[in-house]
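In the current project phase, we have settled on a layout for protein records. A sample record is reproduced below.
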Amino acid sequence: MTHTFLQPQEIEVFYILPALRRYLSMYMKLQGLKQNKIAELLHIEKSAVSQYIKKKRGNKVEFSENVLNEISKSASKIKDEFSLLGETQRLLRFVRISGDLCRIHKNISNIPSECEPEKINCFGGQDDGNRHAGICY
């Protein structure tokens, strides 16, 4: 499924976020929430929830068991916009730290096989001695 050269952030936007929404929708449904409520909590359309649950959307990547466990935890913590933002950012960080982002990036994008996060400072660090690069990472 290798495509053109994509940055890690593009992988997050085009692949990771839709997959997170898919799993959040599925786990929320398993918790007994109705599709209307899931759509409200995730700030997406009810039709999108249906497509996520039927695996018609957000199905281009699979996560490791560790990431799936974290998504399951987040599904029960999302109660409003603030918790949605916080849990989404927490999950994105977890996907990066777990190695899933790199694995998915290598599967989807035409990047060098020897690419590793520490070689290109994927997850931040100090860039000029005065501030931290990639602070959200």
About this structure: The first strand starts at residue 125 and ends at 126.
